Fold:
Amino acid sequence: MATEYIAPVEEFVFLLDEVIGPELEQADSDLSGDDVRQILDEAARFFQEVWAPLDTVGDEQGCVFRDGAVTTPAGFRQAYAAFLDAGWNSVAAPAEFGGAGLSELIGQAVREFASSSCNSLGLYSGLTNGAHATIRRNGAPWMLEHVVPFMVAGKWTGTMCLTEPHCGTDLRLMTTRARPEEDGTYRLTGTKIFISGGDHDLADNIIHLVLAKLPDENGAYSNDLSSVSLFLVPKFKVDPISGALGAANGVQVGGVEHKMGLKGNATCTLNFEGSIGYRLGRSDTGTCTSSSGMRGMFEMMNSARLGTGLQALASAQRAYTHAANYARERLAGRAGNPADRSGAPADPIIVHPDVRRLLIKQASFIEAGRALGLLVRGWLDEAGSGERARRGAVGRFLTPVIKAFFSDRAFESSNDAMQLMGGHGYIRENGVEQLVRDGRIFQLYEGANGVQALDLVLRKLGADNGVAFFSFLSMVREAGQNIGPDSSLLPHADALMAALQILEECGRWFLDDSRDAYDAGASSYDFLTMIGIFSCGYMWLLMALRAEARLRSSPQDAFSQRKLHLAQYWFDRELPMIASLKVRVQTGHACLMGLPAELF
Amino acid sequence: MATEYIAPVEEFVFLLDEVIGPELEQADSDLSGDDVRQILDEAARFFQEVWAPLDTVGDEQGCVFRDGAVTTPAGFRQAYAAFLDAGWNSVAAPAEFGGAGLSELIGQAVREFASSSCNSLGLYSGLTNGAHATIRRNGAPWMLEHVVPFMVAGKWTGTMCLTEPHCGTDLRLMTTRARPEEDGTYRLTGTKIFISGGDHDLADNIIHLVLAKLPDENGAYSNDLSSVSLFLVPKFKVDPISGALGAANGVQVGGVEHKMGLKGNATCTLNFEGSIGYRLGRSDTGTCTSSSGMRGMFEMMNSARLGTGLQALASAQRAYTHAANYARERLAGRAGNPADRSGAPADPIIVHPDVRRLLIKQASFIEAGRALGLLVRGWLDEAGSGERARRGAVGRFLTPVIKAFFSDRAFESSNDAMQLMGGHGYIRENGVEQLVRDGRIFQLYEGANGVQALDLVLRKLGADNGVAFFSFLSMVREAGQNIGPDSSLLPHADALMAALQILEECGRWFLDDSRDAYDAGASSYDFLTMIGIFSCGYMWLLMALRAEARLRSSPQDAFSQRKLHLAQYWFDRELPMIASLKVRVQTGHACLMGLPAELF
Structure:
């Protein structure tokens, strides 16, 4: 039985209208708060009613591989078709390609609802949107005409093909080859694994974006990353002139993986057997370059990383709703304070402080994470220079944090939801254990979280000598300094400023020239966690400020009272962890690197 | 495919011979280190060869409920029979009942091997041992004659029946009734759920220990805990005079649960339909009292809690071995320091600091936990007065910590093993995801971990005004003060003493009369975690001391060098967390209790 799902429409309206919108220069100024609410209410109804009940079916049936093709669980085809019909696949896609052209912030809200209601089904669509964005930026004109509109409409889906059996993170080792043909196309040969949505029965065609190696001038393939390019490889051939669908393109499905969870999404092995591929990567003059293709892939990866963090958060949201309902209904024990007791033999377990701790821990992460996800999305989408460029850089800096910290905390969060249910949480029919299993993948795919931490420290912090990092700290400092002297939030702001000092010190520790080659790796993970906790603190300060303002005019506003409570939790119980994490970071690699490999 | 399992014999020999043995007044003085090694080598071979391959089978097939009875997965019957034949079920049971009469410390080593190699199969036996210990202490003479020997031999198994559909922790609410008969027996009626090993095909009989309510003098059943007694209820009747097995005793199996993991162990619903029960609880004069039965149940629970923590640790041990092997074999990236690079295009991932962090984090918890588990077991078994009684009290104080902290950290540990494997960790065939799913139960059953934290603070800390807690701190202080002035471990000892101060302050905070009714609950969980981290630090100090001594005579001793590295990790990266956790603890319930239930 699937857990109930209630989409958090009010949360998004609050964030878009009052918290994140005002932080961005160009929010959806053409949409009023009422417009937003109306769109999201409609989306909420759709995903609650049509998608949410399928989540369990997806887990129980999984995807079936037979006779070379994948069948999705019962009901997925119809629910996906209904999703396309209602326009939810293309809500944030540009109007010129058939999308609704709404902002990415609205798109992100809709994607959260999709992920919460049925993460495995939502992933087919999420990857498609990432793929057509990459093609839009890097594809040839015929692709924009004959491929992208089908993907925007969701009639065709997309994948990202990077991993091979022996190589994931280390793309240098890849062995999939792209042999140039005289007509400017390529023939791809090789095996890719872990391809989400690699095959299925939802769409008429699948557009694979495939990393493969080009031969050097002597026809040899090297271990050099510069030989890797990105190719568009359709499942069924597409005529570049007419756009007509043709024969199968030699992409054989080798099988689907048996996984811990997210079973409704087919994770495929794909064998490319001389498949025709088209190289992606467009310079301003319209010619392809290898580096622009790789850049396109990295853009897609970054977008997928943001998406992964938010998928994780969406999963935690559903678990939280279930746990909160359970805690209000399940009776056990008596309230510690006799004045809080009902007359019944036992009280609902929500009277117990440790149960509340588990719930508030979940909610305070989820709500701050949602805010941060929207803010980063907004920053990344604000093209431009000066202040906008600076914010874009901060958005890129925070992308690995959103991927890793969100997926770590979301997993912990769903586990907390399960924990609160005691033994009942372990029973499949009660639903939450599926969310735990499904949610475990988000720490692993799109670059395992340890890789995100390295990306944060080596590339995002190190590459520009910390400019993006220090810009971020400046933003937060400014927000802290803007708290009025009569605000009840001054202690929170002070705590955040103290944490900021600690982070600054740690950032400088990493940037210090004297650091050993291993220090960054040894301490990157804890640093990422610190940034995650701190960023959520920043969000809680912004949200609490709005809540305080609302309460000045409406002292009974329960929504705002709730926000102040959750903010207090974060400042009381999460932010203080930064002090101990700093000690960890600054121990460096001493305790890690001395042990010979055979002694582990 | 099951993960490989290598039983850590050398670890146990080191602990029993050199670390924990010397801390106890009566270790296995009749066994030399060589004897211990021989026994454990034999056990290791058995569990590695016979049980370890069944772990996957248990997960894939699960237990099948058909025609009112449960069938265990293929191979379980044979492997269980071989286990009995080899004598492993009764290794630590008293010789007078047919056991081998070895110490509980040896028994604990064997149980770890059993749990690591096949946790679901091991649980049938673990519960049996807990049950016959309870019967030995609280049963009538005929039970000692006709029941206990069969359980010691493993021909009959045992269960513990507490939970009902609407009540787990809150036993007051239980509705299972025991109606007294004229012949001194009782008729039990009611439904129990989540009964591990509640039915199966491994043994000739199952002895259920059942909590049920006695009527008051008017025949009425109350919500008063004092009306609850403990009953022995066999699946098949046992003639108290002859011991002959009789007809079925009206214990109907209602079904088996579909669970996240540990699927090879049947978790049953049992309906008692007028089943004959025998009340447990023996005073010195041989008569039964309700309170002694409840005490017996609590003893069984405490033993089961220790066992649960150790089951969790056993699961983490297996995941760790797999992860360490994977890290030595999987190639990706290059060592940060060029001097550490192999000539190959990529190095084994164990060269990367963040991979080592994940491994050392696992090993340093597991090895300290194993030591603490043995020490606590030893303390609990040292009957006596004075110093022995004081250590017994410390053992009882630490029991909820072993249950909750071990299961929390073991779950994290197996997840770290999975994390290190990237996407491969999520694939069922690679084995670790099963250990994660199996291991999740240990945080939930035998009292969810939040309940353990309450037990720690309210009963174990609070009941005697902290005597056991302060005794524990004194022990650790003494160990710290015994470090010689020329020891390289002085910094570790200093760090441990600083942590001790913090713990002492937190303990006094809980004991402070002015504390609100909700503060204990609000801060109990973080306090338990602090004690867990601190206790493992204590173990690392003891182990590092021995390692240091060994290295003085054998400077190349790799085993000891390894121990010093792991100790350094714990003091560098785990112990410092105590400082931030203290801040959390002392915020009390302010951020938790203000929010109305409907706003969650």
